[in-house]
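Could you please review the protein record set out just below?
***
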Amino acid sequence: MPIRQFRPTSPGRRNASGYTFEELTKKEPEKSLLATKTRNSGRGLGKISTRHRGGGAKRRIRIVDWKRDKFGVPGTIRAIEYDPGRSARLALVFYADGEKRYILAPDGMKVGDAVLSADDAPVMRGNSLPLSALPTGTSVHCVEMIPGKGGQLGRSAGNGIQLMAKDDGYALLRLPSGEMRRVPEGCRATVGVVGNAEHQQISLGKAGRNRHRGRRPQVRGSVMNPVDHPHGGGEGKASVGMPGPKTKWGKPALGYRTRNNKSTDQFIQRRRGKGRR
């Protein structure tokens, strides 16, 4: 999808870019597939529990079909739509039984394309199949981690997961981060790569566009007082004064692994980044 470079009518507009939206075929969302969004603005019980979050433009949640449980019912793509809550585009599917659902729009999907969710569905873009029915080397997205739970892996714009091998009831996947992970072969996945890959090339250009997304300003710890941050204090431009940077709560900010999910460690063959296990 082409990226639009804005004219430099102001300093904030000079380096800003945005979408052309030429791939969208429908402006208004399907009313039956909308839900209200509860706003807590980074606060819990009135106090800030998550920093740098708050405000933002009002938006409604699109109800996306992550499970793809319309087994054996053919569907047709009727529209490609924008979703303010995610980087990917949505495809509106009209099923043969009259039901409408949203799914993630794979790269190259067009209005009129047919989609199907079945164990014996053809390996075509947008179809949902179990990993056991897919050939090795297939690029997929929206992959389940637990059979029947719904897609959890590979859901953002441009993401694709490669099926590397199948053995002993498990499928080995290579995630976009470089991580190699095993998931049960019964987990479902959608064929293809998520569309809107140019999302990473968008330049906001000014802080105001971040505020529209609900992102509040982030203040560096080094310009705070010692009482507010471990990096604070000192005369002039002082260093952090310690071997490595810390968070506001004194935890190491770099090289400190926070993942603590021992129940799934056994399924990770290779961790992301520098081949760590």
The chain has two domains: 3-200, 224-272.
